[in-house]
Description:
The chain is of the alpha+beta class and 643 residues long. Helix content is 38%, strand content 20%. It contains 22 helices and 23 strands. The strands form 5 sheets. Strands 1, 2, 3, 4, 5, 6, 7, 8 and 9 form a 9-stranded mixed β-sheet that branches. A hairpin with a 2-residue loop joins strand 12 and strand 13. Helix 1 crosses helix 5 and helix 17 (514-522) crosses helix 19. It is globular, with a radius of gyration of 33 Å.
Amino acid sequence: MSQIHLLSDHLINQIAAGEVIERPANALKEIIENSLDAGASHIDIKLEAGGIKRLCVTDDGQGMSESDIPLALHRHATSKIGSLEDLEKVVSMGFRGEGLASIASVSRLTLTSRTADANHATQIYAEDGRLSPIKAAAHAAGTTVEAVELFFNTPARRQFLKSAGTEFAHCRTMVERLAMAHPDVAFDLQHNGKDIISLPAQSLFERCTAIMGTDFAAASLNVDESMNTMRVYGLIGKPTFMQGKSSQQYIFVNQRFVRDKIILHAVKQAYNDVLHQALTPAFVLFLTLPPTEVDANVHPTKSEVRFRQSQAVHQLIFHALNKCLAATNAAQTESVSQPATVLADIMQKQPADVQQLFATSENKSNLQKTPAPYQRSHTPLQRNLSLRESQAALNTYAQLYKQEPSTTDNSIAANFESEADSELVMWEQARGVAIASTTQQTTVNDTDIPPLGYAIAQLLDIYILAQAEEALILVDMHATAERVNYEKMKQQRDATGKVSSQTLLIPVRFQASNEEVATAEDYSITLREYGLDIQIENNQQLVVHSVPAMLIKSDIQRLVQQVLADMITIGSSDVVKERENRILSTLACHGSVRAGRRLTLPEMNALLRDMEKTERANQCNHGRPTWVKLRLQDLDALFLRGQ
Length: 643
């Protein structure tokens, strides 16, 4: 008696449903992708009990003809591919033709559709995989798919579902991903009769703001770079945007949401120099490339892809983000995007008696009305400036703020200016301070004020206070000096164009895997460029003869294994450079201005000018902001001026 037998189509569909339809969110994804492939401009979604009890999607796409509707619920029936050549260059969201058939095998499904030129719609009902005869129905041009009681006939699968709230959260996340990838399509989402999401057709930035929030939009940087036939564009969060979570990371390849380790590695590497390793960046990235360069048919849910040229993809992503993040200095972007919001959050966390002092008439009634007890404040102490500091300060401000008369007609202003200048000269002569030459005086106009303005004081020997155009600038002098010195050290190292290596007195030997041995042989020339001279012994051991001079005291075996691991994955490695950067970062930290050191005004202004010329100067080597800009309106709001 034969022990091998063919499975029934119904059982095959249920097995396929186990791979494709893990939970209601997966069923929702398959249906919405069909709507997008049909050219829908508006998609309406209604859920009950997290999609377990009822899931209904209506679109205004091209619809299906009466003869196509029964075929849509059969396995491997599709209008999107017809040959292997079509599969290799597929651009549609769905293409296998098993989504609707799998859903119909584990639910009570009703499919209603009508084309624009049809007199009426056509409807078909499926329960437990059995199809009913088609019938006429009333429906606008488009399609509606309704799935009721998901997994009603597979109780073992249904018991693995979570609560209705959890399943709805997964459904909402799925809708947001698809809406993010198609901002030109309107989406409406209802749950248990309540409107949850209503997104009109809009621009990409507006769609990102609606889904990611205004905080991300305010703290985002625009990315758009191309290389040959590939293009990456989107928004990335500033390094000082600390709210980044893995749920705020969106990667789309040809408008398909994916989780790809190559792209994630490139993003992490780009942020490595400006973000603490414990923090996660937030981003929305779109990668477009020819469909023949990417294989989307490598995962049952199409959530992973495989690139034909993974190294080129990694290089494009890294350089695009690295270029964008390198421009985060005072002359390009602000360090903290919404300092007024940060101040408001700080105020909300203060005790009620502190909030009482700053409460408006609208919210005073909600706070306690007992005034705070009087306490004598400490009298601030001000030390006398030394002669050198006084001279430097006077010379600085005599040059910065002493203006020449702009016209000869305004005689009153000219006379006043000359009197003020003569008084300043007399005051300087009486104190033995060198007089700045009039030929060195610089006229300072509004357009000449640099982005970070001019220093006016040092606060508690930690912060520099500077005045810019209608703004107050607060600078963390140690964090700033740390970044400036770090970037200078990197430029000095990169100027040579190669990594200096040092020969080991005693070579390091270690047992290696077959992949590591093969990679060391294939990339031997590249490894020498990294300063690593590696030889192979007995096809099982790697012998390291030289390493980068800066990493001579590191764990050599671990270093080589990390480099080879990157070579295996993406065909290149930046482990050596990253480790050298850590050492340079430590040197820059210890060699920078420390908190507690008193700076003169020229020293403060010199540091501000260095910040404006330094890449990535908006954050220190650990990702902390280096400066904050408080505009005049922010300060007015803090002191309730005009309210």
